[in-house]
Amino acid sequence: MADKYLKNNGGVLTETEATQTSSGAADAGKIPALDSVGRIDSTMMPVGIGADIASIVASENLAAGDIVDIYDNAGTANVRKADGASAGKYATGFVLAAVTSGSNATVYFEGQNNQLTGLTAGSRMYLSATTPGEIVATAPTGTGQVVQYVGRAINATTIAFEPAQPIVLA
b/e for 86-124, b at 16 or more Cβ within 10 A? Predict the structure, then answer.
């Protein structure tokens, strides 16, 4: 529930609830309220301000925190787990919520992935060459594997996602 304030409604003071989301011009002039997690909803922000995200169909089950690759599946963009085992499934984003195959995944292209575990603050993180969708603190070294820096650990559960150009090892 949003905070309430008194509004002059034709000379009568009326208790009114602040708005947590906007439906557009009809909400012009209303007082905004923070949502349940203490943030301003993206519908209240100017166009172009907010998370850099896309809704893309998942071609496999994805776990919260997975590092993902976007690819062309018969003319349609799909998302799958990124994989450093070989060329072709590079890290382009991440998901913050689990998604089942065939459902739309919200893919984040930048920002903080806070759905991870076991990280050491300050560590450089790389796309894993052994477990698709995961990251590791040591860059892969095997022939044909992909070295792709994906970000730096902020704490035990969060990285600042900043993917670099992948390098396929000879």
Answer: eeebbbbbbbbeebeeeeebbbbeebbbebbeebeeebe
Phi/psi at 18 (nearest 5 deg)? -65, 155
Tell me the chain's radius of gyration from C-alpha atoms. Answer: 21
Cα separation, 93 vs 30, whole angstroms: 35
Q: How far apart are CA 22 and CA 30, in angstroms?
A: 9
Question: DSSP string spanning 55-97?
Answer: EEEESS-B-TT-EEEEEEETTEEEEEE-BTTSTTB---EEESS
List, for residues 27-63, the tens digit of each pLDDT value: 888 899 888 888 888 888 887 787 899 999 999 999 9
Q: Which amino acid is located at 60 in the chain?
A: E
- Report if pTM > 0.90: no
Closest CA relative to residue 115, chosen from 69, 79, 155: 155
The H or E element containing residue 126 is strand 124-127
Q: Residue 67 forms beta bridges with which residues?
A: 94
What six digits make up the tokens of 29? 């002039």
